[in-house]
Amino acid sequence: MSNTPDYTLSITRIIDAPRSLVWSCWTEAERLKQWYCPKPWSVPEADLDARPGGRMNIVMAGPDGERIETVGSFLEVVPQQRLVFSDSHSEGFMPRPDSFMTGVVELSDEGTNRTRMIWSARHASAESKQQHLEMGFESGWNKAADQLNELTQSLV
Predict the structure, then answer these.
(1) Residue 54 and which of 90, 96, 102, 149 are 20 to 30 A apart at CA?
(2) Is 54 part of any domain?
(3) What's the domain count of the chain?
(4) Domain span including residue 49
(5) Residue 38: CATH number of its domain
(6) Strand pairing of 115-122 and 8-15?
(7) pLDDT in tens, the chain (156 residues)
């Protein structure tokens, strides 16, 4: 048993699309770029290699010229079911300093052609969890999930 505190933030959403399509929107760079940040932010660059140890490098751009570059890697990839990624490692499981979070995406069928998506962000400390909350975790990820739902509708 672990005595490690749980510094996890999570949202659950139903996406009106088959799981295979939702999966491709998480694992294909051109699709991820279309929804991953709540507008007016955008993702002008994404370099993904969705396999354990593969790249998950993303650049997020704000409306006033802000630029957030995230270098990370996929830690676990279970096709159409589970993605785990983190900025704690770069490609090839190379350790990186100053990790912000580990992301976990779990997908399951929710009836016909609908997908339950549980998105969790795990943090190493109460402070980083609080920082993510103050950045707008809930509103931001819910907006991004709305954008994901809209994108999948345009692709069905």
Answers:
(1) 149
(2) yes
(3) 1
(4) 8-155
(5) 3.30.530.20
(6) antiparallel
(7) 556 678 999 999 999 999 999 999 999 999 999 999 999 999 999 999 999 999 999 999 999 999 999 999 999 999 999 999 999 999 999 999 889 999 999 999 999 999 999 999 999 999 999 999 999 999 999 999 999 999 999 997
